[in-house]
Specification:
alpha/beta, D-Maltodextrin-Binding Protein, domain 2, 2 domains, six-stranded mixed beta sheet, five-stranded mixed beta sheet, 36% helix, elongated
């Protein structure tokens, strides 16, 4: 906690003490008592401090939004927010010009929110952003820069597992891509171990004793140290026992933990768990010949061309849109023990917003309203690369169900602790990779 926050907390504590003493000295209940306080023996619920936002309808929020003089500024890392604003203006002409979309970069939007709060110059009212590592939840929600607004009408239709870290708008994932022209009957991968096929435990590389390269797949990826991909590998490490069990099931023998022989565990410097299936998988992957590209379109283009034979690419699910331009690519699905975790796009109210009703109106509209019929979900369905998190609204244009892809809910409480280490592992272990 910084000096500023400590000072604020101390002042707040002193005020509470003074108010408590004042109330205790009065013989009649103080009109300044907290809203939740009640007269002894009185069973009448206390009046709330303000609107019960979680239980307000979209129409009620709309009416409150009209009364707010300010403009609702939406910081978003996706153009879905811009589409939502345009649809709001068509459905509610009185709100034309009321909402402003500000395009933000995933890598710096959190710093921007923090800086505005610390300077007392809060500009944003809503933040729409993916949280694949738990950073947004633990560092912005946890330190009171963002508020979680979870409308009751929507929460009733969303899995509790997905509500632990915010209000998800929709689900996606970070898939592997394969070439559908080369594999018209579907990708031959059945588990993550098939990706690192060709690893030689004796040489601890993808070269056999004679020096022949035994790596089967040509690999293209986005930056493995970015949140989406480092978090995915962190999840695999969290589930290390399941990854090891899958190896034994697939190959009929216990997993050989070669990283334990190749690396030195240095407490406080480079630490990793012993005999962990996820770490072994990541170690073998780090020793492969891979090409990191700056853009997901480049990744799927490389898979589409597959100039070097069997090729895989790792990037965002949205890049499947390239099939509309003729790319012969598709998601790898059905991996065991799971293909990936559900990466959700979350909507938050920015702490200090002077448009509390307008911010929540935008969020509830984007979530589909009380019954999923506001119009906010239709553009997401049209893309065909996401899933609805609501059990009463299905994205019909996405070609695979969540069950077919085989996704799991993220363990952000554990991912958050592991994923910074994953970035360190990758940078160091890549430097040890042999020249394949």
């Amino acid at each position: 906690m910084n000096i500023k926050k400590l000072g604020i907390c101390m002042v707040a504590l002193l005020l509470v003490v003074v108010m408590t003493l004042a109330v205790g000295c009065n013989k009649t209940p103080s009109t300044d008592a907290p809203a939740t306080a009640q007269t002894p023996g009185d069973n009448t619920p206390a009046e709330p401090d303000g609107p019960d936002y979680e239980n307000l309808t979209l129409e009620e929020l709309y009416q409150l939004t009209l009364q707010e003089p300010g403009v609702v500024t939406v910081y978003a890392t996706t153009t879905n927010a811009y589409t939502a604003i345009k649809n709001i203006e068509r459905a509610y002409p009185d709100l034309k010009g009321k909402f402003v979309y500000v395009e933000c970069d995933t890598n710096n939007v959190c710093d921007r929110i923090t800086m505005e709060n610390e300077s007392g110059n809060v500009n944003a009212d809503v933040l729409q952003v993916k949280d694949n590592s738990g950073e947004v939840y633990y560092e912005l929600v946890g330190y009171d820069y963002l508020e979680i607004y979870q409308p009751a009408s929507v929460v009733a239709h969303v899995s509790p597992e997905l509500l632990q870290f915010g209000m998800p708008a929709y689900a996606s994932f970070s898939p592997w891509y394969y070439n559908t022209e080369k594999y018209p009957d579907g990708c031959p991968l059945t588990s993550w171990w098939d990706i690192v096929e060709g690893y030689n435990p004796d040489t601890m590389s993808y070269k056999d004793a004679s020096g022949k390269n035994t790596q089967y797949w040509t690999i293209f990826t986005k930056d493995i140290t970015s949140a989406s991909y480092a978090a995915l590998w962190a999840q695999l490490i969290v589930d290390g026992d399941a990854i090891a069990a899958q190896y034994e099931k697939q190959y009929g023998k216990a997993l050989d933990y070669t990283y334990m022989q190749a690396l030195k565990n240095v407490p406080g410097v480079m630490e990793f768990p012993d005999n962990n299936g996820g770490v072994e998988l990541f170690w073998r992957f780090s020793q492969m010949r891979t090409t990191e590209l700056d853009d997901g379109d480049q990744v799927v283009s490389a898979v589409d061309q597959s100039l070097a034979g069997p090729t895989l690419g790792l990037c965002s699910a949205g890049k499947r849109d390239n099939v509309n331009s003729g790319a012969t690519i598709d998601w790898v699905t059905g991996l065991e023990p799971y293909t990936a975790f559900m990466g959700c796009d979350y909507l938050y109210v920015v702490k200090g917003s002077d448009n509390p009703a307008g911010a929540r109106f935008f969020i509830l509209y984007s979530l589909g309203g009380e019954e999923g019929k506001s119009g906010g979900l239709e553009p997401l369905n049209a893309r065909g690369t996401n899933w609805s998190v609501r059990d009463d609204y299905t994205f019909t244009n996405t070609p695979f169900t969540l069950e077919e892809v085989n996704l799991k809910s993220p363990d952000f409480d554990k991912i958050y602790n592991y994923y910074p280490n994953v970035k360190s592992y990758w940078l160091y272990w890549r430097s040890l990779a042999p020249n394949n």
